[in-house]
Amino acid sequence: MSLEILMGQVVVGLINGSFYALLSLGFAVIFGLLGIINVAQGTFYMLGAFGSWMLLNYAGIGYWPALILSPLIAGAVGVVLEKTLIARVYKLEHIYGLLLTYGLMMFIQGMFVYWFATAGRPYPVPLELRGGFDLGILFLPKYRGWVVVASVFFCFATWFAIEKTSLGRTLRAATENPQLTRAFGINVPALLTFGFGAGVALAGFAGVLAAPIYSVSPLMGGELVITVFAVVVVGGMGSILSAIVTGLSLGVVEGLTKVFYPPGANMVIFVIMFIVLLIKPAGLFGRER
Predict the structure, then answer these.
(1) Band (287; pLDDT cuts 50, 70, 90)
(2) How far is the C-alpha of 225 from the C-alpha of 137, rounded, in Å?
(3) What is the pLDDT of residues 51-67, one digit of tens each?
(4) Where are the domains of the chain?
(5) pTM for this structure?
(6) Do 187 and 25 meet the contact criterion of CB atoms below 8 Å apart?
(7) How far is CA 31 from the centre of its chain?
(8) Kindly report the CA angle at 268 between 265 and 271, in degrees rounded to 5?
(9) Distance between the two ends of the chain, CA-based, in angstroms?
(10) How many C-beta atoms surround the C-beta of residue 117 within 10 A?
(11) What is residue 216's three-state secondary structure?
(12) Residue 57: Cβ within 10 Å count
């Protein structure tokens, strides 16, 4: 086995892991702050990709503005859904949130299938990121390198914002003790809405990054969300840092599996999930209740 093939699959694993990390992070933010198992996260990823595609084809807006606008649009959709539907299940069992978001996923995905069918649509790589770098042991396309760097940066920036800033502390306080937080004059419902919208915007951001690599399709999120859910379970539900580390790590493991045992690449993450659930049901970084 050549070193070029091995390193190439590590890079592929890091790229896939970057998307796993971003989506898992958004999933963990929403569950950790709101207690909602948001299985529609893959749909918001698809909305981000389609948003960038529609901005380009219908409004002539290119990749770099879309990288800001499309996540904001996805986040705005999330805010509307939170205000009208999601907020109604906060005090109910987790299964109600799961069923509600599953229904939203099927509804939104069905609308896009009706409008655009299931065929994938190409999205061009921005001119500044075309070409690549010859690293000796492999050729690294610029855009794929950008995806890894941007994903890691935004993942850790989100972790820092939630864990190390006053806004993050206020968000956590609003979740853990809403009555006391209201006593300080803080608008708790607005904070919860912001938290849900931020988690959705992360998925939309991942979708924009994915658009030039994968075909933009209504089914792209549904195919990914099952893997992301497995990643979250392995790391531990609601643990923000574990979502980042586990997403990147399992992406690399998946890539290496394609080298050593290709037939097992599509199932290795789920095999790891089963093993983790048997040994530590709360996840590798989760806390037992």
Answers:
(1) low
(2) 33
(3) 999 999 999 999 999 99
(4) 3-223
(5) 0.92
(6) no
(7) 13
(8) 155
(9) 45
(10) 11
(11) strand
(12) 11
